[in-house]
Specification:
single chain; mainly beta; Neuraminidase; five-stranded antiparallel β-sheet; four-stranded antiparallel β-sheet; 0% helix
């Protein structure tokens, strides 16, 4: 296990890990997007499959019932190279693709239940990431799919954990990916991958947003745009309100203040640093997915992470 004093590699040989969840037992659950599994990583680095999926499990979160809720993107196309490791390819819609979904996993038995295949407006195409609120519902991004000459516009939906409601709340977005809530729950943050933009939306109730008028293209407030050629992936929020976004190509975590200032960029050795969660007794450790090299790292974090609803 590599450890340079701040960054330790906990697990290797994972098939594009994403969606980390820190558990009460001190384990970390990750999805393996390419491997189509939900996997448990023990503190000693051993890992075991919790559940097997059809398609591409992407973001994941613990729900109010103790089960894991998974965004399944329906499957991706893949490419590998020496310079960039294993990564999703474009077009992103693979042969045999039939649609995306939201799934629910009993982590004791490994049973996978398909909860939603569409919102009130359209079929789900490529669900990517999700976050639960204090009311027991969850927001999730749907990135959409890319074909040879076209790319779909994405959306954000709000759903209930009991399977009774899935409604589209934001449309359109350009490859929406990471999603998170501010400490007081009043702002919903959404990161767009291709535009490298971080947006904020005003939350006024469970599943309800106060959308801003034109010229906002989506009803949100633009918080931050990454400089240079960087892409933004999934995110987590610190207790102080900073938004920590996985950053692609300039691999690492970009920490952005609520006012839109870049607090710092913590560089990590992977071109596709996709996601993080906080763990440890005081949420002082970030568990980060180094996806193209198939690794899970722990990073001593300079500030405490935000405690999630569940």
């Amino acid at each position: 296990m590599f450890d340079n004093g701040r960054v330790a590699i906990l697990a290797e040989a994972l098939a594009f890990p994403e969606g980390p969840i820190y558990t009460a037992e001190g384990d970390v659950l990750v999805v393996e997007v390419k491997g189509a599994t939900l996997t448990r990583v023990r503190p000693n680095g051993a890992h075991e499959i919790v559940s097997q999926h059809v398609g591409g499990p992407n973001g994941a979160a613990l729900g109010p019932d103790g089960r894991v809720y998974v965004c399944n993107n329906g499957g991706l196309s893949w490419v590998s190279s020496q310079s960039f490791g294993t990564r999703p390819a474009f077009p992103s819609q693979p042969p045999g693709y039939t649609g995306g979904s939201i799934e629910r996993v009993d982590i004791r038995t490994g049973r996978v239940e398909r909860l939603y295949e569409r919102s009130d407006q359209a079929p789900l195409r490529g669900p990517n990431d999700l976050v639960f609120d204090d009311h027991g519902g969850f927001w999730f991004t749907d990135t959409g799919k890319g074909q040879e000459r076209t790319s779909e516009r994405g959306s954000v939906c709000y759903a209930r954990a009991d399977g009774s409601l899935c409604t589209e709340a934001i449309f359109p977005l350009v490859q929406p990916n990471g999603i998170g809530l501010s400490p007081d729950g009043s702002r919903l943050y959404v990161a767009e991958t291709l535009t490298a933009r971080l947006w904020a939306f005003d939350v006024v109730g469970p599943g309800a947003l106060a959308l801003k008028p034109y010229p906002s293209p989506n009803g949100g407030e633009l918080v931050y745009t990454a400089p240079g050629y960087r892409l933004l992936d999934s995110l987590a929020v610190e207790a102080c309100g900073n938004v920590c976004v996985g950053t692609i190509f300039d691999g690492g975590i970009s920490v952005i203040s609520p006012e839109g200032e870049l607090v710092e960029h913590i560089a990590l050795e992977d071109t596709h640093v996709t996601n993080l969660c906080f763990g440890g007794p005081q949420l002082e450790v970030a568990y980060v997915t180094l996806s193209s090299s198939g690794r899970l790292a722990s990073v001593k974090w300079p500030r405490a992470g935000l405690r999630l609803a569940y």
